[in-house]
Amino acid sequence: MLYSDKVMDHFANPRNVGEIPDADGVGEVGNAKCGDIMKMYLKIEDGMIKDVKFKTFGCGAAIATSSIATEMIKGKPIEEALKLTNKAVIEALDGLPPAKIHCSVLAEQAIKAAFADYYTKKGIDPTPFVGTV
Ligand code: FES
Ligand code: FES
Known about the structure:
Number of helices: 6
CATH class: Alpha Beta
CATH topology: Sufe protein. Chain: A
GO molecular function: iron ion binding; iron-sulfur cluster binding
InterPro entries: NIF_FeS_clus_asmbl_NifU-like, NIF_FeS_clus_asmbl_NifU_N
Protein name: Fe-S cluster assembly scaffold protein NifU
Radius of gyration: 14 Å
Domain NIF system FeS cluster assembly NifU N-terminal: 3-122
Mean pLDDT: 96
Structural class: alpha+beta
Distance between the termini: 34 Å
Bound molecules: FE2/S2 (inorganic) cluster
Organism: Merdimmobilis hominis
């Protein structure tokens, strides 16, 4: 089987799908090669990820990685959410086929892009927090 049960579960029943109309940060990233697009919405309160939602126009692995990534940061402090790596996402999904590793990178980048938007809106340079996205 190409995909783990966890990937199949998050693909078939993705968590936290949708938009947050009054989001504090929105990040959109895409992969030029496959054309997939991922959008992340963050609601932040008292330094915590109060809510997070995503919309992914992409492959099954992109949907599964966005879904599990939202679960991994929801309710967590900002500092912890910023540390989320695509490696941690892959581990949480019990692995991904090599051709699908970039899908998990997209999830990490989308979250970082949403944080970059969050800091920029506050008038803070996001680079020290998220690097260059
Ligand atoms: Fe869309 Fe293969 S490129 S399913
Ligand atoms: Fe490109 Fe999955 S194939 S994000």
